[in-house]
Amino acid sequence: MRKIVLLVFVLYTSAQASPFDCPSLGDGDSLSQTQLLERLTHSCRYDRLERPITYTEKGSRLPVDVYVRWYIYFMQNLEAHDLQFKIHALLQFRFLDPRLIFRKVSPKRSQPILGEANLRDILWMPHIFLANERDSSIMGTNEKDVLTSVSLDGTVIISSRITATLYCWMSLQKFPFDEQHCSTYLESWMYNTSELILHWEQKRPITFNPDVHLTEYVLKQIWSNESTINADLNDLRHGAFAGNYSSLSFTVQLTREVGFYIMDYFLPSMLIVGASWVSFWLQADQAAPRLMLGTSTMLTFITLASAQGKTLPKVSYIKVSEVWFLGCTLFIFGSLLEFAFVNTIWRRTSNVDVKKLKSKYILRSTLSPRLYETSTFRQHSADSVSMTASSVSERPNTAANYRNYLTKPNMQTGGGVATEETRKFYEFDIGLMEEGGDENVHENRNSWTTLTPQEISQWIDAKARVMFPIAFLIFNVLFWTFVYTF
């Protein structure tokens, strides 16, 4: 009994393997689409693991030409902190498979055979992947969002709606006035250029839905490219197979909209810098309000700058936005330093000699003051006159009317004893009188002016009210010129 069963099994197996069991393609017009496809893709005629093969006139094998088209439904704003963007698109492949030609076996059919994922699964498919993807998937269900079409001449079209998250290596040197070029790369996985070549469709290979709108960017330009990628045994990008692999790419040029950043960062920072200048209108001895104003504007600005920086990746180069925030910080810090300087001047107890009422002389005398004391500069004491009695007796009228504005007597001496410094300055002035008389003396004396510390502090504040806005205006001219020129 066992021998009979074994014999029947052998005969059945032989019958299945017999070439005479291959279904006929005759009278294809009477077959349904499913029946016709089952016969076209029967294992005796079709091997889905083997690519379509065509030959030249000389009999050499030709690679499969796969044509690609993108239709983008939706594009999400670039996520700068993750260097990525997301798209929803229709990805379409078109190629010719001579094994699926049914024009002769079913001449009455004029429409292609349509199917979904189940039809795609029984056909040979080019293995193509997104080289810069972070994640991708078919949208909806496999049955719903995959369309497969087989034409009479054997042309196969596979259309899939996909969602993909792709890397975009952004350049943020000019943020937020930057332009980004984000590319999408398609490459053959297991077939090198001797087996498969990718091409863009001739007409409109990349199309965007007219309703696509980005809130932060403006789509300026799109361009595509066909290239070849060389892989060696050290590159696992193509499954550790060495060779040249066909690649397609398209790049979109995106320009960032700066309206949000102008209204939320640049204008507020200008106002904060301007608010720090209010301290110049407060008196120098009002330390509490000036200090509170300076520190509050500084802390507010730092908070504003840090809020903007949280949305960006930690890159090693300097961005334009950082240059702006650094410049504004220096202006606010400068107003604090100006307050500390004028407050120090205000608290001085001695007046300052100034050669002329000009900025350079006032600053020079303020930084290295020549102290002036009115009690000794307005008249000479009788003790000082006695030191030079002989000289004075010769010119009584001159000595009686002379006031030495350059000397500083020793306040600790008594009984008519003067310091060496006093004698030197006094003799210097007497020499001037001998040379030119009273006119030279009064000319030398009138060229110097005395300012109180309070007057100098007010003068510095008055200059700061003008110099700080002018300097900030120059900084803005240079900054915005660089932004829109380079």
Automatic annotation (TrEMBL):
> Keyword set for this entry?
Cell membrane, Glycoprotein, Ion channel, Ion transport, Ligand-gated ion channel, Membrane, Signal, Transmembrane, Transmembrane helix, Transport
Q: Which Gene3D superfamilies match?
A: Neurotransmitter-gated ion-channel ligand-binding domain (2.70.170.10), Neurotransmitter-gated ion-channel transmembrane domain (1.20.58.390)
**Where does the signal peptide begin and end?**
1-17
Q: Where in the cell is it found?
A: Cell membrane
Task: Indicate the segments forming the Neurotransmitter-gated ion-channel ligand-binding domain, all copies.
Answer: 33-257
Domain Neurotransmitter-gated ion-channel transmembrane, residue spans: 267-480
Q: Name one GO molecular function term.
A: ligand-gated monoatomic anion channel activity
* Entry annotated with the keyword Kinase: no
A matching Pfam family = Neur_chan_LBD
The entry's cellular-component GO terms read: plasma membrane
Q: Which InterPro entries match?
A: GABAA/Glycine_rcpt, Neur_chan_lig-bd, Neur_chan_lig-bd_sf, Neur_channel, Neuro-gated_channel_TM_sf, Neuro_actylchol_rec, Neurotrans-gated_channel_TM, Neurotransmitter_ion_chnl_CS
Q: Which residues cross the membrane?
A: 265-284, 291-311, 323-346, 466-484
Catalysed reactions, as listed in the record: chloride(in) = chloride(out)
How is the protein disposed in the membrane?
Multi-pass membrane protein
Q: Which family is this protein grouped under?
A: Belongs to the ligand-gated ion channel (TC 1.A.9) family.
- Protein name listed in UniProt: pH-sensitive chloride channel 2
> What's the source species for this entry?
Glossina pallidipes
